[in-house]
User: Fold this.
Amino acid sequence: MRRTEAGELRADIRFWRRSRRTLSLGEALQDLYIGVFAVLMLGSMLVSVLVNLSDVGDRACVASDCAAARSLLPWLVVGTLLALLWSLARMVGPVAVGPGVAAWLLPSPVDRGDLLRGRARGTALLAAALVAPVAAGAATLAGFGVAPLVVFTVGAAGLASYGVGALTAAQAAARSRHPALLLGPVSLLAVGVGLATIAASRAPVVSVSPAVRWAGLVATGLVWVGVLVGLVRARVLTARLRRRDVAPGGVLVPGLGGALATLDLALMFDVLVAHASSRRGALRPRRGGPAGLAALAWRDLVRLRRQPGRLVLLAGSLLVPYAVATVGGRVVVVLVEVLVCFVLVVPFLVALRVLTRSAGMSRMFPTPLGPTRAAAVVVPGALLVVHGLLSAPALHRTLTAPASDLALLGVASGVAGLAAGVRWVTGRPPDYGRPLVSTPAGGVPTNLYGSVLRGFDIAVLTALPMLFAPTGGGATVSLAVSVGVIGYLCSRGAT
Assistant:
């Protein structure tokens, strides 16, 4: 009798699902064919471009420093990607559930191992899938052979998956000092050491000898053994997870998805900052300090005291222009310095971001809008000016110019990075009230796609005078443009 009822139930479920399907099997296979064909076609084009660039590198990169830096390129790229991936996994949580699952299923008497193990395994395998193509592209640019390229790609993918599995164990242990939490900082430190060796002209040329190849095979095998062990133990680890361990990440994911759906990267930054602040909890208030507009700059100094890691990262980024100068980057060092300052100044502009997106907050200050926002740029601007001055000796390696011109170029590079950061932070969100452009995906605002390039346009615009004229005159023009952009963006009306 029970078997008959179970069979009827399965038949009812099957009928319900089939009666509500919107895609036939033939249409699904057709979509699959188009997707696979597009991936193969675009992938072959990308592989052809990378192979051609590798051939150009073989002919152009003949100096010892350039050859050493090129051999370290895959390791630096993969190390940076792993640091970002593990940091994001630590922030979101390798295992996260949506609000519905957190409210309905987790409080119920169910086996959380069966409920969450699929998520843990999927996250680990997704990390491997994200790292593998980047590792293969970097190895191709470095001129790796077929066998070393395959070993390097498989090893990098396995290391990414193993790190995510270790972070899952740390999440299940619910300890703030688990060794797996150091994976991101250690990977970033290794990248810094590699850049330091390149900048000091001490980088070794990594050659793939038979002994190194066998060592790589053994290391890759051990890493994947650890990945398989982590996948097998996923049910045991996830059974220890509590609701407070997996619910915050599930709340964060929809916000990130909504921000990415509108290509509003600044909104995604807001979501991440709010999530990090909520996980940090309460802070000890710091009373006192100056009054007036100087109070805004003082609060930036307080934030720096609470998060000194940002200063350490900004100081460590000085290795990038020196490494580029060592391999013969010449005037490209200026562009690299501008981009580095642009990327790293964004976390320092949180106060400007609040004053830009919160019109009510701006109206609470008894000062005009322009000076209020400009006060929130003082501390980040001073840091970038110092950063640019410290990068001036890197220009001395590749450019023949007086010391005063080199110092002015460094200052202009830092201020240009600040202008690009201010442009990125103060950018307006997509406005669906304007006339829309008709696309197959529906109506799209005219400023939607341009938001992806926001900040980079100002970085290139302010760097062009220094690229065409790497002298004091070019630096002066760049400074004038950067200061004009910052002044306009700070005084522009709220969104």
